[in-house]
Amino acid sequence: MTEQEAETTAPLSVEAEGETVGEAKWSALRELERRCPGLDKGSVRFAVVSEGERGLLGVGYAPAKVIASVSNPVVPEVAEEEPGSPAALLRDLVERIARGLGAPVAVSIREDDESLVATLTGPDLGLVIGKHGQTIDAIQYLANAIVWRGHEDRKSVVVDAAGYRDRRRASLEQLADRAAGEARASRKDVSLEPMSAVERKIVHVYLQEREDVETTSEGTEPNRYVVVKPVA
Known about the structure:
three-stranded mixed β-sheet; 6 helices; globular
């Protein structure tokens, strides 16, 4: 079987979050489609874990959660990485760190013109992700420093865990929208929770096109945070 051919695997399930059940289902479906190109959407079954809570101004907010499952998915076979290549180094690095954390994972490597992406799956991904993504961000930072060492042409290295990056980005963008709305309505600065540099950048970039608010980062690591300010 070549890497263009495909193989049938055991049933596949992914868990996803969103502000609503519909958004959670969309996120889960997108992750399944990423893993199984050509997926028959009609074969996907959803189980709602939690319908979530909207909260007030972000207080008491809890995301909706769903599990999407598909039986006998067809997954493209992936060629093994060339020994010593950045892809092989990334796989080895992530696997060794995950084992050290007590959470062995399966690693899928994807490379395009702009990035090298390692996607992790396994039963204990919470240990790899860490609180607010601090652990997986640290792994990604280390990977970017190591895998392209000695190479002139460098690509961005992304370490993901079963769609965590997309779910967290969506959550941060929703948080940014709520903070911007609060800042505009109250005419006061709104400080967000401490975040990693990766997550702060997501908020800054997401809000930079708005003319009614501006953002800055304040504090010192690891407690540096984004402040959303109304524009007079």
